[in-house]
Every structure is written in C-alpha cells, then in structure tokens.
Amino acid sequence: EEYTPFGFVDILCKDKQGNLVVIECKRYTADYNAVSQLNRYVKKIKERKGITHVRGILASPSISENTKKKLEEHGFTHIPFEPTHYKEKYRKQQKNLLDF
Q1: Integer Cα distance of 60 and 42 in angstroms
Q2: How far apart are CA 33 and CA 25, in angstroms?
Q3: I need a surface site. Which of 5, 21, 46, 72 has the fewest CB within 10 A?
C-alpha cells in the first residue's frame, strides 16, 4: 500500500518493463467510482514520483461495459478475478452499510 491524500493505493508495483503500476482491487462489480478512484491514484503517483507513465489496473470480479469504456478512455485495463474460495463463507456474514 502507498498513501495518497485520496486514500491508500491497494497495490503499487513495477511491471516487466520497470513501469510503476497502480492496482485497485474491488471485491464486487467495479463501477465509475472505482475508475475515478484509480485515476486519482495514478495522477497522484505520477505527481509524487515525477514521472509521466504509470499503468492503472482495476481488478474485480466483473465490470459493466460502460465502466470498461471509461476505464479504457483513461488508458487503464481491467483484470477479472474471483475472490479465493476460502473467503466466500465470510461474504454472507460480512455487514454492509445498510446493517448499521
């Protein structure tokens, strides 16, 4: 994790070519807010590190076509993934905002 004024970047790493990569992970369907969040993180990392190229990846189980288009407009990519099975039993037990 790396802190920005917008929150913590989930994963900050380098790719095979040595480029910084910001990965934003979502447990459920990614939406416009996730794209906006990733964009803010990438911009802040570019500014802080003084570089012009930072890759952005949004990792989530699914993404709508409209959200995917918005993601691609920013030059980012989506990587689909499913949470590991051992955590699925907690999904039903986990509280959401409506529970409070």
Answers
A1: 18
A2: 12
A3: 5
**What distance in Å separates the CA atoms of residue 56 and residue 42, rounded to the nearest whole number?**
7
Tokens representing residue 78 in the block: 């989506």
Collapsing DSSP to helix, strand or coil, 86 comes out as helix
* Beta carbons of 11 and 22 less than 8 angstroms apart: yes
Q: Could you identify the residue written with the tokens 């918005």? A: 70
**What are the tens digits of pLDDT across the range 24-37?**
999 889 999 999 99
Closest to 38 measured CA to CA, from 14, 84, 73, 89: 73
pTM score: 0.79
Question: 15, exposed or middle or buried, with CB in 10 Å at 0-12, 13-18, 19+?
Answer: exposed
